[in-house]
Amino acid sequence: MNKHVLFVAVTILILAGTGIVSQAYAAFTITMETDKDVYDHASVITVTGNVEPVDPNGSDVTIIIVRAVPSGIAGIAQVSVNSDGDFST
């Protein structure tokens, strides 16, 4: 088989596969807010938010809280989204 024909065939397969995969990831919006602007080491952080559109099969949001000094992960939470798209932890 001619090298150019093989190159074109492979390129078409890659582009077709990319188009199919890209359509599986629909656009969505996640909004989040906290109950305070500043926290100290003893504070409890409350995070609320909304996901749109809502997955009818259910979905979770993973929240990772990162501290500045010393740098690192301060907490991780996985929260279920309700039927309105709201979540809180």
Q: What descriptors fit this protein?
A:
single chain, about 90 residues, alpha+beta, 3-stranded antiparallel β-sheet, two-stranded antiparallel ribbon, 1 helix
Number of helices: 1
Shape, per Cα inertia axes = flat
Low-confidence stretches: none
| Alpha carbon gyration radius | 21 Å
Order of H and E elements? HEEEEE
Query: Hey, roughly how much beta strand do the residues contain?
Result: 35-45%
- The rounded distance between the terminal residues' Cα atoms is 60 Å
Side-by-side strand order of the widest sheet: 1-2-5
Helix content class: 10-25%
Question: What is the assembly state of the chains in this entry?
Answer: single chain
Biggest pleated-sheet summary? 3 strands, antiparallel
**Strand element count:** 5
Structural class: alpha+beta
Integer average pLDDT? 78
Describe it for me?
There is one protein chain. The chain has 1 helix and 5 strands. With 89 residues, it is an alpha+beta fold. A hairpin with a 4-residue loop joins strand 3 and strand 4. The longest helix has 22 residues, at 3-24. The mean pLDDT is 78.
Give a quick rundown of the structure:
With 89 residues, the protein is of the alpha+beta class.
List the helices and strands and how they pair.
Elements (H helix, E strand, L loop, with lengths): L2 H22 L4 E6 L12 E6 L7 E8 L4 E9 L5 E3 L1
Antiparallel strand pairs: 1-2, 2-5, 3-4
